[in-house]
Amino acid sequence: MELQERLNEVRSRIAEAAKQSKRPDGAVQLVAVSKTFDAEAIRPAIAAGQRVFGENRVQESQGKWPELKSETAGIELHLIGPLQSNKADDAVALFDVIETVDREKIARALADAMKRQGKTVRLYVQVNTGLEPQKAGIAPDDTAAFVDLCRGELGLAIEGLMCIPPAEENPGPHFALLAKLAKNCGLEKLSMGMSGDYETAVAFGATCVRVGSAIFGTR
Ligand SMILES: *Cc1c(COP(=O)(O)O)cnc(C)c1O
Q1: Which of these, 34, 28, 1, lies nearest to 12 by C-alpha position?
Q2: Is residue 107 a contact partner of residue 101, using CB atoms and an 8 Å limit?
Q3: How far is the CA of 141 from the CAs of 98, 189, 201, in angstroms?
Q4: Which residues, in sequence order, are bridge partners of residue 54?
Q5: Nearest CA to ligand 1 atom 11
Q6: What pLDDT, in 10s, does the model give residues 9-34?
Q7: Cα 64 to ligand 1 centre (Å)
């Protein structure tokens, strides 16, 4: 199957899942995760009308996205991988959305970088819903206080929450937990769902699904 067919398939399955759960048209944004793929492999997705992309590494993204962004207007780039504070300036310069804010140090570094550059990047707080030691994200119980700190002391407008459920578990309860935490914080955006579970995520209220291999193929 060609990339365009796979992309269309993902789009129609998202639309169908949204319809099933009585979500309005356009309620779910598709973030096409292009990590590990080079500019040559990404261009067909842009040609097929895809404008929102996700990457998990700042440095890798710097090697391809400045050029791709300069070729096509309206590209929206999401950082979906862990961020180190010494990369905050680079991340703010290149990305439109950073989905992986998960500790005070990185939140402060982003606030400073945005001030320096006079640029606002949209932010999500990553929650480690499975409390996995190897995984990034703030603990569910600490989420509300962290969102408060970001909004208050740091003056950051947090847009939503993001999670990556444990690979071997049923994702539904994790999506439900993220939705509940967001509601408690007064946040409307939920970034959840990947190639294996994006339809489930839509049923649990995802506003943003991050789909890589189902579009670009195996990595
Ligand atoms: C790689 C990645 C994805 C996409 O995963 P697929 O299974 O290829 O769809 C989504 N979210 C994050 C945070 C990722 O790192």
Answers
A1: 28
A2: yes
A3: 22, 19, 21
A4: 33, 78
A5: 210
A6: 999 999 999 999 999 879 999 999 99
A7: 18
